[in-house]
Amino acid sequence: MLAWPAGLMGRIFRSAIFATALVAPVGQALARATPDSFAELANQLLPSVVSIATMQTLKPNSAEAQLPDLPPDSPLQNLFKDFLDKNKNQSHHVTSLGSGFIIDPSGLIVTNNHVVADADEITVTLNDGTTLPAKIVGRDDKTDLALVRVKPKSPLPAAHFGDSDKARIGDWVIAIGNPFGLGSSVTAGIVSARNRDIAAGPYDDFIQTDAPINRGNSGGPLFDMDGNVVGINSAIFSPSGGSVGVGFAIPSNMAREVVEQLRQYGQTRRGWLGVRIQQVTSDIAEGMGLPTSTGALVADVTPNGPAAKAGVQEGDLITGFDGKPVPDSRALPRVVADTPVGKTVNLDVLRKGKKTTLRVTIAKLDDSDLAASALKPAKPTPPKPGSKLGQFGFTLAPLDGETRTKYKIAGDVQGAIVTDVDPDSPAAEKMLPGDVIVQVQNEPVRTPEEVAKRVNADTKAGRKVELLLVNRDGSLTYVALRLTETG
After folding, report:
1. What is the CATH number of domain 271-373?
2. Which CATH class, in words, describes the domain spanning 164-265?
3. Active site residue: 51, 96, 140, 144, which one?
4. 274 vs 229: CA distance, rounded Å
5. Which class in CATH covers the domain with range 387-482?
6. Which residues, including other chains, have CB under 8 Å from residue 276's CB and lie 6 or more apart?
7. Domain range annotation of the chain
8. What is the pLDDT along the chain (487 residues), one digit of tens a residue?
9. Is there a catalytic annotation at residue 144?
10. 160 labelled catalytic
């Protein structure tokens, strides 16, 4: 690898940009030169970043103290037994390190929820070495954000949230934090990607950066070149545990709303629409006759919820919310969550090819209700196969007492139950034994014969994709299966 002196490289880079400008066509975008140094910006921002140490006391649990699997006559038996008996009533202390940044001179500090969750003691170390005890103001596990407070003797230097929507792929950013407990460290890189979903929570919208982020950087700020916080460093992708150039930061525009709610209420107050949505795949779009696969497809509507009261129906495609387009199923939960409780907004819906606008009043999200609805029954043993639907490669049976009992199907569910799926069939990756087909192409079905009749008719009519509404473990979801012509 070639190493270039920083000053020389900067002069070469600027000369190349100047030469390009002489011949570049009018309107062609030009890259900015690499900054000569981040020193002035880092010196300005370092005082607003803190290190956070937490301690958690693990209470003794004799149930976990078990002898290893040793031969009955092993001389180690007594040795392990004496050790466990001696230590079984002792508490153990676990410490962890992270980062944070001051957002108010009075001592309010933002960090990650996973940095302070379950901590018995929290200690904040300022950039000048001052240590202060901290208390949790509020935390949110959905976005991995927390707000803590210290009581300083004098006002603290505070950082400011910027507009993360303006952070473009390729823009320079710097990360400041406490990697590996070493203390305040500054690293630089660029915004590598936007809108990353890493399956960390229901509102994933991470900024990806190649600015080195390591263990201990969690909760620290990601700054733009104007010195504004555009992200909160939260996670890394790393097989080794160290930085490999793939780090993820919570966008400041999302964090700002959550932090303000934690500041006011000590908890979040998210908006709730009362629908279960799913992604519009290309197959589903074709099955519904949609021109594109944008929007959020309503698979289920919560009875007496805000959407139900507004007239939202299963199969509606939500394309706009409060004047903002809904590009996909990931975008809708985020924009709904950020909507003030009690606000009435316009909901743009495409229903059976026709556009309509509904007025819906947003309610408060109740996490306990959502947790209860997410419980799923255990998978039972399948019943005897019934009539086979050769088009797709799965077997259907009527919903009767036997199938309802074996698959734990509620009494109010009507349709035809899938009892077997051919592993080499078109349905193998989309259907499961125990699925109940309740609609075919938006038409209710109650028996395997009705399903077969509708599928055969659509096949003869030249339809390419069949859209099924399936009840799976109590939740409704749309499944699109490709039809093949039969001789």
Report:
1. 2.30.42.10
2. mainly beta
3. 144
4. 33
5. mainly beta
6. 298, 299, 300, 301, 302, 475, 476
7. 164-265, 271-373, 387-482
8. 333 333 333 333 333 333 333 344 444 455 566 788 999 999 999 999 999 999 987 665 544 455 555 566 666 666 666 666 666 666 666 788 999 999 999 999 999 999 999 899 999 999 999 999 999 999 999 999 999 999 999 999 999 999 999 999 999 999 999 999 888 999 999 999 998 988 888 888 899 999 999 999 999 999 999 999 999 999 988 777 778 889 999 999 999 999 999 999 999 999 999 999 998 888 888 888 887 789 999 999 999 999 999 999 999 999 999 999 999 888 899 899 989 999 999 999 999 889 999 999 999 988 654 443 333 333 433 444 455 666 788 889 998 888 888 888 988 899 999 998 888 887 888 889 999 999 998 889 999 999 988 888 888 888 888 899 999 988 898 998 887 654 3
9. yes
10. no
What sign for the dihedral angle of Cα 31, 32, 33, 35? Answer: negative
**Long-range contacts for 332-337 (Cβ within 8 Å, ≥24 apart)?**
332/273, 332/277, 332/296, 333/202, 333/203, 333/277, 334/203, 334/205, 334/254, 336/270, 336/271, 336/272, 336/273, 336/362, 337/203, 337/270, 337/271, 337/365
CB atoms under 10 Å from CB of 139, counted, come to 23
**Active-site residue, selected from the candidate residues 96, 185, 218, 329:** 218
80-107 per-residue burial string, b: 16 or more CB within 10 A, e: under 16: eeeeeeeeeeeeeeeebbbbbbbbeeeb
Determine the Cα–Cα distance for residues 347 and 309; give it in Å rounded to an integer: 13
Annotated catalytic residue within 114, 140, 204, 435: 114
82 part of the active site: no
The two domains 271-373 and 387-482 share their CATH topology (first three levels equal)? yes
Q: Which of 83, 119, 78, 76 is nearest to 98 (CA)?
A: 119
Report the b/e string of 454-467 with b at 16+ CB within 10 A.
Answer: bbeebbeeebebbb
